[in-house]
Specification:
Blueprint (H helix, E strand, L loop, with lengths): L1 H49 L15 H12 L4 E8 L6 E7 L3 E8 L4 E8 L18 H11 L3 E10 L2 E10 L2 E8 L5 E7 L1
Antiparallel strand pairs: 1-2, 1-5, 2-3, 3-4, 5-6, 6-7, 7-8
C-alpha cells in the first residue's frame, strides 16, 4: 500500500513539472512573436515617415533618392523613349513627380507620389520628327536634391517646385521658392548647378 501511494505521488510530481515547463515554453514563444511584430511595425512607420518629410513651413521636401528611383522606373517602362522633362512639385505635405518622354511614335507622361509609387502612366501619338532633340540626359546633370540645395544656398525660402528641361539647347533646372509670400524663381545650369538667372515676383 505504501509503495502504491509513493508511486502515485511521484507520478503526479513528474506530470506537474512537465506541465510547468510546457507553459514556460509557450510564454517564451508568445514573447518572441510579440517582439517580431513590434519590429515590423516600427520599420513600416519609419518608411512612411521618410517619404512625407516637410520643412519648417510645412512644405514637402523630396527624399534624396526620389530623382533616381522615378527615372529608373520611367526608363524600365518605356525602354525606347528619351526623357524630355522631370518635374517635382510640392503637393501639401507630400509632393509628386511628373516625368515626360518621347519615342518615335508616342509621348509619355508618368506621375509618382512622394514615395516613388506610380500614380499614372499615359501616352499619346508623337508627330514630332525631331523628338530626340528634346532629350534631357539625366545621367549628366545634378540631381533634384542637389538643385534644391544649391538654390537654397543662394536664396532663402521653401522650394515649391523644381523642373528639369532643355531650353534653347541648354539643359536647366528651374527652381521656385516661396519666402514671406514672395515667389522667387532661380534658373540653374543643370550640369554644374551654377545660378544663371534669378527672377523675383513682386
Amino acid at each position: 500500500m505504501k509503495k502504491l501511494i509513493l508511486m502515485t505521488i511521484l507520478g503526479s510530481s513528474l506530470l506537474l513539472a512537465a506541465c510547468q515547463q510546457n507553459s514556460e515554453n509557450q510564454n517564451g514563444d508568445t514573447a518572441q512573436t510579440t517582439n517580431t511584430t513590434t519590429t515590423t511595425t516600427t520599420a513600416t512607420t519609419t518608411s512612411e515617415t521618410s517619404s512625407k518629410a516637410t520643412d519648417q513651413n510645412g512644405i514637402a521636401v523630396p527624399k534624396a533618392e526620389l530623382f533616381d528611383e522615378t527615372i529608373t522606373k520611367f526608363q524600365s517602362a518605356h525602354t525606347e523613349a528619351v526623357i524630355t522633362s522631370f518635374k517635382w512639385e510640392a503637393q501639401g505635405p507630400n509632393g509628386q513627380v511628373e516625368i515626360e518622354g518621347k519615342d518615335s511614335s508616342q509621348e509619355y507622361q508618368m506621375i509618382f507620389d512622394a514615395s516613388g509609387k506610380l500614380l499614372g502612366d499615359t501616352s499619346e501619338v508623337n508627330d514630332d520628327k525631331n523628338w530626340q532633340e528634346d532629350e534631357v540626359k539625366t545621367d549628366a546633370v545634378i540631381s533634384l536634391s542637389d538643385a534644391i540645395e544649391k538654390a537654397q544656398a543662394d536664396t532663402e525660402g521653401s522650394v515649391t517646385s523644381a523642373e528639369l528641361e532643355k531650353d534653347d539647347g541648354v539643359t536647366k533646372w528651374e527652381v521656385k521658392l516661396l519666402h514671406t509670400n514672395q515667389e522667387i524663381e532661380l534658373t540653374l545650369d543643370a550640369q554644374g548647378g551654377k545660378i544663371l538667372n534669378k527672377d523675383v515676383d513682386d
